[in-house]
Amino acid sequence: MRRVPAWLLLVLFFTLAATPRLGASPPQSGWNFSDEEAAPSWTDDLKDQAADLTLFSAFAVLALVGFFRKSEILKWITMGIAVIYLGFIRSQLITIVNVFGLVVWNLPVFRHNMTWYLFAGFTLVTTLLWGRVYCGRVCAFGAMTQLLDKVVPAKIRFELPRRIEQRANYVKYGLLGITVSYFLITRDISIYRYVEPFWMFSLQARAGMWLGLALLLTATVFVRNLYCRFLCPVGAFLGLLSNLTVFRIKRWSECNSCKICEKTCEWGAIRGPRIVASECVRCDDCERLYADKNKCPHWLILKKKQTTG
Question: Does the N-terminal or the C-terminal CB of the chain have fewer CB atoms within 10 Å?
Fold first, then answer.
């Protein structure tokens, strides 16, 4: 009998060893590591964002409680927290970049940005229900300038004539249109740095931009809420939405002739018997006057009728 060559035996051995066994399942990957990490689940993403979701929810509740109670103290507390928490800690504001994303429907991934969606949803819903609540007490930059206004001596402030003020209000709408048009043509979002100063909370900018911010804040000392009233494109966008507001400020019949609230309004939103929804930030000043039975002519007239009747 001829002997089988050794090299042929080796070839047969390795061929059989490499042949998969009957019923054996093929490996799922080339490496088949047993300790490979699984992709994060929705539960994992929710846990990672739970702290931010809780903190913003608590802040939103505080803002709404102050709004419904018409509490001036709670309003200032809310704005102080907005500057510290939403501004310097989180650097989270509604910006023109968000408007860009909405226009072209390029929004963040929900599961990774739940807090942002809660924030944006809160802003949208409150605007449609009551008006520019966001501008009046939630926006960190607007809150900062309003707090600044409280410490600025009134004697150095310059009040714009009503005619100029009402025309200057349209500037922000022009800036909104120009900025959105520029984005749609170029798809360049970097223009946001030149139309809104919200980058300041990140404390990162070039020297020229800090100089421009210093000039803006200096001008704000003399003209109250300058940026928010006349220059903010986000305020213009929310102002347009405010025309759809469901629950508007109640007015008395005496408002047709009374000028108390019109003179008190720091936003130029009251014009005779009419409140301009797109300019009103629901600061509560006029509503507190409506409820004051010792100042509002509506209650004084009723009191007089009761005493003479």
Answer: N
Is the residue at 94 inside a domain? yes
Beta bridge partners of 271: 274
> Are 164 and 227 found together in one domain?
yes
Overall number of domains in the chain:
2
User: Residue 276 is part of which domain span?
Assistant: 250-304
Tokens of 11: 């070839």
Mean pLDDT over each residue of the chain, to the nearest integer? 87
Element spanning 220, H or E: helix 207-222
Q: For residue 28, give the amino acid letter.
A: Q
Q: Which of 42-51, 98-107, 139-148, 208-217 has the lowest mean pLDDT?
A: 42-51
Element (H, E) at 275: strand 274-275
Are 266 and 199 within one domain?
no
Look up residue 36 and give its two tokens.
């490979």
Alpha carbon distance 77, 63 (integer Å): 9
The C-alpha atoms of residue 83 and residue 79 are separated, in whole angstroms, by 6
Q: Report which of 217, 208, 305 is spatially closest to residue 254, judged by C-alpha positions.
A: 305
pLDDT at 259: 86
Residues 243 and 269 in one domain: no
Q: Could you tell me if 288 and 238 lie in one domain?
A: no
Question: Does pTM top 0.85 for this prediction?
Answer: no
8 Å CB contact between 297 and 152: no
Given 247, 268, 283, the domain boundary residue is 247
pLDDT tens by residue, 30-48: 444 445 556 778 888 899 9
Residues 6+ apart with CB under 8 A from 268: 162, 165, 166, 169, 229, 279
The answer to whether position 211 is within a domain reads yes
Which pLDDT score is estimated for 37? Answer: 58
